[in-house]
C-alpha cells in the first residue's frame, strides 16, 4: 500500500496526491509571496500526513501552534529553554518520535536563528539508533538560510547555514526530510534550495524570483508569466513525489487555523473626532513618563593626573610629619570604616586599584589609623569584600563566605562575592548593571564573559533561557545559609 496524501485538486477537479515515502527521500521547496497561501499549503500537508510520519515544525511566527489542538503535536516555546535544554529536547524528540512545533515568536530574530540552528544540529547529530523518518518543516526559510550576510553576526550566519545545509544535503540518510518555505527564492541560499527535488511555486511578482521558479519547474520565460497570475491558494507543482510534469494545484481545506490578522474589512468604531482624540490623549503624559529602559551604568570617572596626585600626597605627608606629637589627633576610625567610605563613593570601582590603594593609605594617615599590615594584594581583596557588601552580613555567614572565596582570583572576586551575598540573603541574582558596577566596567559583554568564566571554573552555575531569563546558583551556599 502506497502512503499518499491529497494536497488539493487540479484545474479539472482531479485530486493531486503527494507520495509521503517519495517526499521523505526527495525533499520539498515551497515559494510564494506573502498572501499567496504558502502557510495554508504547509498546514494542509502537515494535517494530511499527521498520522503517517513524525513531524517537526520550525515556526518563527507562531502560525502552527494550533496543530496541537487537533493532533498530537507538542508545542515547545523556544524562549523558555536554555541552549543546552533545546539540544537535549531535540535528542529526546528523535528518540521518542514526537511530533513537535518549535514556536519562536517570543524571541528576537537573531535569537530565533541561533535557537533553530542549535535545534537542527542536535536533530542531525542524534545517535544512529534514533534515525527514524521525520518531516522537518522550516517556515520563512530565508531567515535561516540567507543568500547574503545581512545584519546578523557572522558566527550566527555560519551556524545557521551549516545546520540548514546539513538538513537538506545530508539529512536524508538520517531520516530527516527537509520542507523549506520561503517568500523569495532570491533570498534563499542556493545550496539549500538546490537540494530539493519537489517544488510547489505560488504567486510571485519580481522577475528574478519568477525566473528562478520557472527554471526549477522547467518552464520557459513566456510560461513563467503564469506564476504572476496565480490566485491565492493555487500553486504549480513538480517533482517525483507530486508529478513528472508541472501541474496546477488548488490547495484543499484545513482544520487548524493560523493567527494571521484579519484580511477582511471590519466596521470602524462609532466615534467622532472629538471622542477619538480624547481617547488617544487620555493619560498620555502618565504613560510617557513611565520608565521604559533602565539608565546605563555611570561612565568611569576620569583618572586623576599622576603628578598632581603625587604632589598632593607628598604635601599631606609632610604636613602630617611636621605636626608635634601632642597635636596629632587620636584615631577617628578603622580600616573597615575607611574601606566602606571609599566603596560608597560614586564610581569607586571604576578607578584603578593602585589609585584606590594610594587614597586608602592617605586616609589612614589622616585619621591616624594603622594600615602598615595591609599591602596592595590584601587591600584589593578587602576592598572586594566591602564593595560586594560582605561586611553587612552577620559573623557566621561572613566567615563561611570568606572560606568559599579563598581560592577565587582577585580580578573576579568582587562580582563573585556580590552573587554569593545575594544568594545568602535569599535574593535574586544581581542583574548585569549591578555586576558591572561591582566589576568596574560599562561593557555588558565583559559581564557575560565573566559569568562564563565563573561557570567554567565551577564557582557558579548559570541557567539562561532564550528569552533572556537568567538563574544563577552557587555551589556550597547551603553551608552559608545553614
From TrEMBL:
<feature type="domain" description="AAA+ ATPase">
    <location>
        <begin position="24"/>
        <end position="214"/>
    </location>
</feature>
<dbReference type="GO" id="GO:0005524">
    <property type="term" value="F:ATP binding"/>
</dbReference>
<protein>
    <submittedName>
        <fullName>ATP-binding protein</fullName>
    </submittedName>
</protein>
<dbReference type="InterPro" id="IPR003593">
    <property type="entry name" value="AAA+_ATPase"/>
</dbReference>
<dbReference type="InterPro" id="IPR027417">
    <property type="entry name" value="P-loop_NTPase"/>
</dbReference>
<feature type="region of interest" description="Disordered">
    <location>
        <begin position="286"/>
        <end position="308"/>
    </location>
</feature>
<feature type="compositionally biased region" description="Pro residues">
    <location>
        <begin position="294"/>
        <end position="304"/>
    </location>
</feature>
<dbReference type="InterPro" id="IPR002789">
    <property type="entry name" value="HerA_central"/>
</dbReference>
<keyword id="KW-0547">Nucleotide-binding</keyword>
<keyword id="KW-0067">ATP-binding</keyword>
<dbReference type="InterPro" id="IPR014588">
    <property type="entry name" value="ATPase_Atu1862_pred"/>
</dbReference>
<dbReference type="InterPro" id="IPR008571">
    <property type="entry name" value="HerA-like"/>
</dbReference>
<dbReference type="Pfam" id="PF01935">
    <property type="entry name" value="DUF87"/>
</dbReference>
